[in-house]
Amino acid sequence: MGGVKRTNDFLEKATWTLAIALLVLVVAVNVVNPTQSAEALPDSQVNEEIDNAAPTFQTPVQQSAPATDLPQGIE
């Protein structure tokens, strides 16, 4: 159509134009509709169920056995 040189110029200009348009669109969307941080979002029902189902580990209390419960011959 316009030769190799003009085709190359067109593709380069089109690429730069689309890249800049995409960048402007991303920035505009973030300015208009900012997302909340993860700390501000409420816990989902799935996270609540996971927290409720998680086992709670407690340190076992060690009790010493009375000396009279030991078998004969072991001292």
* Helicity range: 40-55%
Radius of gyration: 35 Å
Task: Please report which band the strand proportion falls in: under 5%, 5-15%, 15-25%, 25-35%, 35-45% or over 45%.
Answer: under 5%
Uncertain spans: none
Distance N terminus to C terminus?
103 Å
Query: What is the N-to-C succession of helices and strands?
Result: HH
Query: Tally of extended strands?
Result: 0
Report the major sheet.
none
Return the structural class: mainly alpha
What's the average pLDDT?
Answer: 75
What is the overall shape? Answer: elongated
**Tally of helical segments:** 2
Textual characterization of the structure:
With 75 residues, the protein is mainly α. It has a domain at 1-33. The protein is built from two helices and no strands. It is elongated. The model has no long low-confidence stretch (mean pLDDT 75).
Describe, in short, the structure shown:
With 75 residues, this protein is mostly helical. The chain has helices at residues 4-32, 45-53.
